[in-house]
Write a structure and sequence with these properties.
Layout (H helix, E strand, L loop, with lengths): L6 H4 L10 H7 L12 E4 L36 H22 L6 E3 L3 E2 L8 H9 L4 H55 L3 H25 L8 H9 L1 E2 L6 H16 L7 H17 L1 E4 L2 E4 L7 H20 L2 H12 L5 H26 L26 H33 L3 H25 L3 E2 L20 E2 L2 H4 L3 H10 L7 H18 L9 H22 L8 H16 L3 H11 L5 H18 L3 H9 L31 E3 H10 L4 E7 L9 E8 H10 L24 H4 L15 E3 L10 E2 L5 H11 L4 E4 L5 E5 L1 H5 L1 E6 L2 E6 L1 E3 L2
Parallel strand pairs: 1-17, 2-18, 13-14
Antiparallel strand pairs: 3-4, 5-6, 7-8, 9-12, 10-11, 14-15, 16-17
Helix pairs in contact: 5-6, 5-8, 5-9, 5-10, 5-12, 6-8, 6-14, 7-22, 8-9, 9-10, 10-11, 10-12, 11-12, 11-20, 13-19, 13-21, 13-22, 14-17, 16-18, 17-18, 18-19, 19-21, 20-21
């Protein structure tokens, strides 16, 4: 459902292209153009995707060829040249039509996404309850202050327990799995039964990955992927159904363990941020859903505003526990996820992240047998580099590596976008296809690993850095082992550590090149599967591999200057991750905290910044691409450029659906059943007007409030007062109302439809309003800064004439591609 209708829904006609907002945005550009940028505005045609019907097929555009493109195979053509030319024109026209008419997944907003309501409903009921608690307000504020800090402590403890449990489960089972495969590889390389270990490897991967995909697909689809794009959208103010549910928590945590054990090219760091957010939201809501029943513990923090703050802390705690980086986790939540911050919240989030890091350190150290040493601050540590120093003459090499990281990162995003669109158009019609694809990828991963060990028969005697490394001596002499085994007979995290810390002679050029190509393609294919998976570790492993390759070249060219390839692997890992995710500040701090050496921070920061700039020249980041493909109305930090002369009257939704202070229940039911609006302005009828529903604005009531009032039967026959008392807490119980109470759940009799519902005690009496002359930047900053859901547009007589919602602002998107700033006006689709 949408917060308010689009112009097509309300019946208002779209403006002609000459008068559109896009044209006006373009109108500020001089004819000669700016000196350094070329601005263009691209209005995107609206497409229609039919989500109903039994076949589930999407209705694509029908291509027609005009008379000038008619093609014939008969002898009426003068020559073979003219025939080929005509066919070429036909093909060109069809290709052009496909580009213009086919659904464009990144050029739309989907109407189903709702906004959260961060604004306090200033109702008469709210004021009465506050007056009753006036004497207890100081004590209540103190209790709430202490409770928030205590809840942040619990979030940190809970996230650390989860992180340690996931890590221990993965390490124990993965060690047994790869030890079994290595045993059969060693045995069968001499006896000629190599199909046996291949069958064991494929069988284990297939069984576990099918279970991981089925868990996500059939239990909670929102648990797929890393979860960070959806967490980012939630913290931006978009409600994502099922994102913070108990089912999603189970599918996410259990699923990520199964995904890694299933041999998929993924990590558990992104899912840890999502899992931490779910745990924090559950603690904030104070209820435990179990088999259709709710066990309610408390309700002090059951509002959108409070839950949002807890989710921000949970996401930061998850990253902190994953990397042992409390400062980096806090900055990651600030830079990549959350949109609303203040100093006190930053302190609470940092406190939670620090508790998570310390507790994870203690639990993992205890698991290793030395709990007092605290030597395992996170799930992924880059460990200490013996020679992490650099010379100024190496800076150009690092810059070149950053450019490579930006280019390969942009290629990763482009390929994954193409694959995502292909999945949505063809593979996501049936759930069993999602599960089968995950099984196919796991089998391909096992076969690829075996073929590389079988085909690249390179052996080494260099001892691996990790004492837990599993190797195989397949086709190698006694005392040596297969080079590729240290990269494939381990988890992606173990592979990353090997590439960062193994000696120079551990890998040759051919094994690294083969690994880079295969693992890059597997990473592209894996991200987007219907499994719980992260992209941090695969990105770092790919970058570490080609970074190590560059380091080997530098050592060959300058043997006196370069002695350690580990730092080049680290720079390559940072460049690759920056080129894919496009975050700079938080990743710099995370990598510095993971290495434990601040002296290399400058080089890491430079490479991350340049890789981001190079990647942004071609595409958006991976997480932003996921948000765009999902059609989520995300609001950026700043309003669209060149929009100062655009007035709110030009992009608001109108006309509005108005209500009187007292309405019959039957009329309210009709509105809720037939309209998708989430906000209804309340007016007082102008007695001098002959038109009905024309008068001054008195307030606004939300759809959730109407559902709650009807469910509580807070209405009475005409001329009588209702005896039902509804408190403000009941409007958030259950939370959120829109996801747990629907119009179908209401049991309203025919007699009750003639009763009257009085909105005066419950409506927001002081909604935010603007006049039609407000500019887009002012509306944007007001809307985003206050976290609004609805902004009412009124005329000079204080009569509502329009409504501004999140989608009205988000459909104007600014971006930079190939060095040029461009504007796009997106369409809103009902999918």
């Amino acid at each position: 459902m949408s917060d308010y209708s689009s112009k097509e829904k309300t019946g208002a006609k779209e403006k002609s292209p000459k008068n559109s907002v896009s044209e006006k945005l373009l109108g500020d550009i001089p004819e000669d153009g700016p000196a350094h940028h070329s601005f263009t505005v691209t209005p995107v045609r609206q497409t229609s995707i039919n989500s109903g019907g039994g076949s589930g097929r999407k209705h694509l555009a029908v291509f027609e060829v005009g008379e000038d493109g008619d093609v014939t195979d008969t002898l009426t053509q003068n020559s073979i040249t003219s025939l080929l030319s005509a066919k070429f024109r036909d093909l060109s026209k069809r290709w052009k039509q496909y580009g213009e008419e086919s659904p464009r997944f990144r050029k739309r907003l989907v109407s189903k996404w709702e906004s959260m309501n961060y604004d306090q409903i200033d109702s008469q009921l709210f004021q009465e309850e506050n007056n009753k608690l006036k004497n207890k307000s100081k004590k209540k504020l103190a209790v709430m202050w202490v409770s928030r800090w205590f809840m942040m402590f619990l979030v940190g403890i809970g996230t650390s327990l989860l992180a340690a449990g996931v890590h221990i489960a993965v390490e124990l089972v993965a060690h047994q799995k790869f030890h079994l495969i290595a045993k059969y590889l060693d045995k069968c390389s001499d006896t000629g039964c190599l199909m046996t270990p291949v069958a064991i490897w494929c069988g284990i991967n297939l069984g576990i990955s099918l279970l991981a995909a089925a868990l996500v697909t059939y239990v909670q689809p929102t648990a797929a992927g890393s979860g960070i794009p959806l967490i980012k959208s939630y913290l931006n103010g978009v409600r994502v159904p099922g994102l913070l549910s108990l089912r999603c928590f189970i599918a996410k945590t259990v699923g990520v363990v199964l995904s890694i054990l299933g041999g998929l090219a993924c990590g558990k760091e992104g899912p840890m941020a999502h899992s931490g957010g779910i745990m924090a939201a559950g603690l904030g809501k104070g209820r435990i859903p179990w088999f259709g029943r709710d066990f309610k513990l408390y309700n002090a923090f059951r509002t959108d505003h409070e839950v949002r703050d807890f989710v921000a802390a949970g996401a930061a705690s998850g990253v902190s526990a994953a990397f042992g980086a409390p400062v980096g986790g806090t900055l990651f939540s600030v830079e990549e996820a959350a949109s609303f911050w203040n100093t006190e919240l930053v302190w609470r989030v940092f406190f939670s992240a620090m508790i998570a890091c310390f507790s994870t350190n203690f639990l993992l150290s205890a698991f290793e047998g030395h709990p007092t040493e605290l030597s395992h601050p996170g799930l992924v540590r880059f460990n200490t580099f013996p020679n992490l120093t650099f010379d100024l003459i190496e800076i150009p090499v690092f810059i070149l590596m950053a450019v490579i990281g930006g280019l390969t990162g942009a290629l990763f995003v482009v390929l994954n976008y193409k694959l995502t669109v292909f999945r949505q158009k063809y593979l996501h019609r049936h759930n069993w296809i999602k599960v089968a694809e995950a099984g196919l990828v796991s089998v391909v991963s096992a076969v690829a690993g075996f073929l590389l060990m079988f085909g690249v028969r390179e052996c080494t005697t260099a001892k691996p850095n990790s004492s837990h490394a599993i190797t195989t001596s397949m086709f190698c002499e006694e005392g040596s082992f297969n080079t590729m085994s240290t990269m494939f007979l381990t988890t992606p995290e173990g592979c990353l550590k090997s590439l960062l810390h193994d000696p120079l002679e551990s890998y040759g050029v051919l094994p690294l090149v083969a690994f880079i190509v295969i693992f890059f393609l597997l990473g592209v294919w894996t991200y987007g599967l219907s499994v719980s998976s992260g992209v941090f570790i695969p990105s770092l492993a790919i970058g570490a591999a080609w970074g190590r390759l560059v380091g080997m070249g530098v050592v060959q060219l300058f043997p006196d200057q370069a002695k350690d390839v580990g730092k080049y692997a680290l720079i390559g890992a940072a460049s690759q991750l920056g080129g894919i995710l496009r975050t700079t500040i938080s990743l710099t701090v995370i990598i510095v905290e993971c290495t434990g050496d601040i002296s290399f921070g400058l080089c890491i920061m430079i490479t991350l910044m340049i890789s981001k700039w190079v990647g942004d020249f071609f595409t958006t980041g991976l997480y932003d691409m996921n948000v765009e493909v999902s059609g989520i109305p995300l609001l950026s930090w700043e309003p669209p450029p060149l929009s100062d002369n655009v007035r709110v009257s030009e992009f608001m939704s109108h006309p509005v659906l108005l209500l009187m202070p007292r309405e019959k229940v039957g009329h309210i039911l009709d509105i809720l059943q037939n309209e998708t609006f989430h906000g209804f302005p309340i007016i007082e009828q102008d007695p001098s007007s002959v038109l009905q529903y024309k008068g001054k604005l008195r307030g606004i009531v939300l759809r959730d409030q109407l559902l709650t009032l009807l469910q509580k039967k807070a209405f009475a026959p005409e001329g009588m007062k209702t005896s039902v008392k509804v408190s403000t807490q009941e409007f958030n119980d259950p939370y959120p109302v829109s996801q747990r109470v629907s119009i179908k759940d209401l049991e309203i009799t025919e007699d009750e439809k003639h009763c009257v519902l009085d909105f005066k005690p419950y409506m927001n009496r002081t909604p935010y309003t603007v006049n039609p002359d407000f500019s887009m930047p002012r509306v944007f900053r007001l809307f985003r800064g206050l976290g609004l859901r609805h902004l009412v547009v009124i005329d000079e007589d204080y009569q509502p004439i329009g409504m501004v919602t999140r989608k009205d602002l988000a459909k104007y998107r600014a971006g930079t591609k190939r060095g040029m700033l461009h504007m796009e006006q997106l369409t809103i689709e009902n999918v």
